[in-house]
Design goal:
By secondary structure, the chain is an alpha+beta fold. Among the domains are: 29 residues, no CATH class; 49 residues. Helices cover 31% and strands 12% of the residues. The strands form 2 sheets. It has a two-stranded antiparallel sheet with strand order 1-2. Strands 3-4 form a two-stranded antiparallel ribbon.
Length: 113
Protein backbone atom coordinates (compact mmCIF):
# COMPACT_ATOMS: atom_id res chain seq x y z
CA UNK A 1 0.00 0.00 0.00
CA UNK A 2 1.49 3.38 -1.00
CA UNK A 3 2.13 5.87 1.75
CA UNK A 4 1.11 9.52 1.69
CA UNK A 5 4.08 11.76 1.01
CA UNK A 6 4.77 14.45 3.56
CA UNK A 7 6.97 17.51 3.71
CA UNK A 8 8.00 19.78 6.57
CA UNK A 9 6.10 22.94 7.52
CA UNK A 10 7.86 25.98 6.02
CA UNK A 11 7.57 28.05 9.20
CA UNK A 12 11.11 28.55 10.56
CA UNK A 13 11.95 25.91 13.15
CA UNK A 14 8.69 23.96 12.86
CA UNK A 15 9.34 20.20 12.59
CA UNK A 16 5.72 19.19 11.82
CA UNK A 17 5.20 17.06 8.71
CA UNK A 18 2.36 18.11 6.43
CA UNK A 19 0.91 16.74 3.16
CA UNK A 20 2.85 17.51 -0.02
CA UNK A 21 1.31 20.58 -1.67
CA UNK A 22 0.67 22.31 1.65
CA UNK A 23 3.00 25.02 2.89
CA UNK A 24 2.28 25.31 6.60
CA UNK A 25 0.87 23.20 9.43
CA UNK A 26 -2.48 24.17 10.97
CA UNK A 27 -0.72 25.96 13.83
CA UNK A 28 1.23 28.29 11.48
CA UNK A 29 -1.24 28.67 8.60
CA UNK A 30 -2.80 31.84 10.04
CA UNK A 31 0.65 33.46 10.36
CA UNK A 32 1.28 33.10 6.62
CA UNK A 33 -1.79 34.20 4.63
CA UNK A 34 -1.71 33.50 0.91
CA UNK A 35 -0.16 36.38 -0.97
CA UNK A 36 -2.25 37.91 -3.77
CA UNK A 37 -0.87 37.75 -7.30
CA UNK A 38 1.45 40.48 -8.55
CA UNK A 39 -1.31 41.92 -10.74
CA UNK A 40 -3.71 42.07 -7.79
CA UNK A 41 -1.00 43.92 -5.83
CA UNK A 42 -0.79 46.57 -8.60
CA UNK A 43 2.09 45.29 -10.75
CA UNK A 44 0.21 45.50 -14.04
CA UNK A 45 1.46 45.98 -17.61
CA UNK A 46 1.29 49.74 -16.94
CA UNK A 47 3.70 49.27 -13.99
CA UNK A 48 6.01 47.12 -16.12
CA UNK A 49 6.19 49.82 -18.81
CA UNK A 50 6.73 52.69 -16.35
CA UNK A 51 9.29 50.80 -14.26
CA UNK A 52 11.35 49.94 -17.37
CA UNK A 53 11.34 53.63 -18.27
CA UNK A 54 12.40 54.55 -14.72
CA UNK A 55 15.29 52.05 -14.85
CA UNK A 56 16.49 53.55 -18.15
CA UNK A 57 16.65 56.93 -16.39
CA UNK A 58 18.17 55.45 -13.19
CA UNK A 59 20.37 52.55 -14.34
CA UNK A 60 22.40 52.05 -11.13
CA UNK A 61 21.44 50.65 -7.74
CA UNK A 62 21.23 53.49 -5.21
CA UNK A 63 22.72 51.23 -2.51
CA UNK A 64 25.68 49.50 -4.15
CA UNK A 65 26.13 51.08 -7.60
CA UNK A 66 25.65 47.86 -9.58
CA UNK A 67 23.18 47.77 -12.50
CA UNK A 68 19.64 48.22 -11.20
CA UNK A 69 16.98 45.64 -12.04
CA UNK A 70 14.09 46.58 -9.76
CA UNK A 71 12.10 49.73 -9.06
CA UNK A 72 11.58 49.58 -5.31
CA UNK A 73 9.02 51.43 -3.22
CA UNK A 74 11.05 53.18 -0.50
CA UNK A 75 8.06 53.13 1.84
CA UNK A 76 6.11 49.91 1.24
CA UNK A 77 2.80 50.82 -0.37
CA UNK A 78 0.86 47.91 1.20
CA UNK A 79 -1.91 48.38 -1.37
CA UNK A 80 -2.18 52.18 -1.10
CA UNK A 81 -2.44 53.24 -4.74
CA UNK A 82 -1.35 56.84 -4.20
CA UNK A 83 1.87 55.67 -2.54
CA UNK A 84 2.33 52.98 -5.19
CA UNK A 85 2.38 55.52 -8.05
CA UNK A 86 4.28 58.30 -6.22
CA UNK A 87 7.58 58.50 -8.12
CA UNK A 88 9.26 60.24 -5.17
CA UNK A 89 8.73 56.93 -3.33
CA UNK A 90 10.69 54.93 -5.95
CA UNK A 91 14.34 53.95 -6.05
CA UNK A 92 16.39 51.81 -8.40
CA UNK A 93 17.91 48.72 -6.78
CA UNK A 94 19.77 45.63 -7.95
CA UNK A 95 17.96 42.38 -7.17
CA UNK A 96 20.31 41.48 -4.29
CA UNK A 97 19.77 44.83 -2.53
CA UNK A 98 16.00 44.67 -3.19
CA UNK A 99 15.74 41.15 -1.76
CA UNK A 100 17.74 42.18 1.33
CA UNK A 101 15.59 45.31 1.88
CA UNK A 102 12.34 43.41 1.38
CA UNK A 103 13.46 40.66 3.77
CA UNK A 104 14.25 43.26 6.43
CA UNK A 105 10.86 44.95 5.94
CA UNK A 106 8.95 41.68 6.03
CA UNK A 107 10.60 40.65 9.30
CA UNK A 108 9.45 43.86 11.06
CA UNK A 109 5.92 44.26 12.42
CA UNK A 110 3.49 46.15 10.20
CA UNK A 111 1.54 49.04 11.66
CA UNK A 112 -1.59 50.18 9.85
CA UNK A 113 -2.90 53.66 10.63
Amino acid sequence: MPYKQRTQCRHPGCPVLIPVGSKYCDKHKQLHPDRPSAVKRGYTSRWQRISRQYLRQHPLCVRCGRPAQVVDHIVPHRGREQLFWDESNWQALCKACHDRKTGEEDSRPTYEY
